[in-house]
Amino acid sequence: MKRLAILLSGRGSNFEAIARNISEGKLEAEIAVVVSNNPDAKGLETAAGLGLKTVCLPSKGVDTGVWAAGAVEALRPFEADLICLAGFMRRVGGPLLEAYAGRILNIHPSLLPSFPGLHVQQQALDYGVKYSGCTVHFVDAGLDTGAIVKQAAVEVKDSDDADTLAARILVEEHRIYSEAIALVLSGRFKIQGRRVVETQARTAGV
Length: 206
Hints:
It is a single chain. This protein is an alpha/beta fold. It folds into two domains: 1-101, Rossmann fold, CATH 3.40.50.170; 108-206, Rossmann fold, CATH 3.40.50.170. The protein has six helices and nine strands, in the order βαβαβαβαβαββαββ. It has a seven-stranded mixed β-sheet with strand order 3-2-1-4-5-6-7, sandwiched between helices. Strands 8-9 form a two-stranded antiparallel ribbon. Helix 2 (42-49) links the parallel strand 2 (30-36) and strand 3 (54-56).
């Protein structure tokens, strides 16, 4: 059984969706550990309530590289096949990227490469786009620049504000993240530039 490590900073709704899909047999994997950089993250409480292993590594005032090195050591005993960022509000850092090269996924609430970074829904509304959505991508050293695994589009309504748009996008996030995890864990893909292409034959890697 492939093992996931979840990194989160807040409520962890995408983590909850992944855990639910696993329990319902929709995703063949197990969550080895849930890690947070925020001691007050609700996701840690949720994970503990589900009987999952949790690790808290506070990042406030800690250099990104130093935190990442600590995370590598903390994750080592759990032998994770894939790291899934689920509302992890910090840059990953070089040591973690190197230790898990090609094995870190993130979910971002826009159709990348549009609107990377923070305050994404407000960026979309300010720009006046008719469609936004969400993207699952591999994590690299850039800001939301890794190869795209899956995307889902959501229509932007004239009545939307940032909160209502975010709520509809979140529904799609919960759906496509587990689909993307399943694809990556299967190994049935190849990366062409910034695009992940599904293949039929199993490939080497994750």
